[in-house]
Amino acid sequence: MERVVESIEVPCCFAENGCTQKIAYFNKKKYKKACRHGPCFCPEPGCGFSGPAATLPDHFTDCHKWPNTAFKYFAQFGLRLQPGPHVLRAQDGTVFLMNVVAAEPLGHAISLVCVRPEATDSPFGCSVVFSCFTGHHQISTLAVVRCSSLVDGLPKDGFCVVPKASGGTHVVLQTTIDTELVYDVED
């Protein structure tokens, strides 16, 4: 009887979002937490959009006109400091949101979140390098980028503060996002 129960397979509860996996019935709850097709949410106030993380970049760009940048892990890329969310798309399809908010009287606070259906352990880190004026050079590092479905909106805390620039200087955030490398080890 135990083998019969273990052999029962059911479709993923996120089949309508594109998941084609068949899961052993007894693993249904565990798989639901790990499925990348689970819902993520638009954090824009008043917007009720939800869907798989892979659908969010187009939604953010088309509906809210948020800037969108593709990047490669471990390769530095530049982002102009501008208030509001910025969509970052990794080459593997992972979606991040960098948000810049005013932090008066200091300047701007920067937060970063990896958009995933479940708040899982994150394999991602980030460093940001910038200069606000001649002689200034600052590096901020986020050892572990938080993962979120954005059901509670954008993060309220920042990992980096960019001081007010003198003379209207345009600050460029030289950003690097990294991920843990996983190797198959043969015995």
From TrEMBL:
Q: Name one GO cellular component term.
A: cytoplasm
Record's keyword terms, sorted: Metal-binding, Zinc, Zinc-finger
Q: Can you provide one Gene Ontology molecular function annotated for this UniProt record?
A: zinc ion binding
PROSITE patterns in the cross-refs: ZF_SIAH (PS51081)
Coiled-coil stretches are none
Q: Which InterPro entries match?
A: E3_ubiquitin-ligase_SINA, Znf_RING/FYVE/PHD, Znf_SIAH
**One Pfam entry name:** Sina_ZnF
| GO biological process, alphabetically ordered | protein ubiquitination
Q: Taxonomically, which superkingdom?
A: Eukaryota
Residues forming the SIAH-type domain are: 7-65
Name used for this protein in its record: SIAH-type domain-containing protein
Which organism is this entry from?
A: Miscanthus lutarioriparius
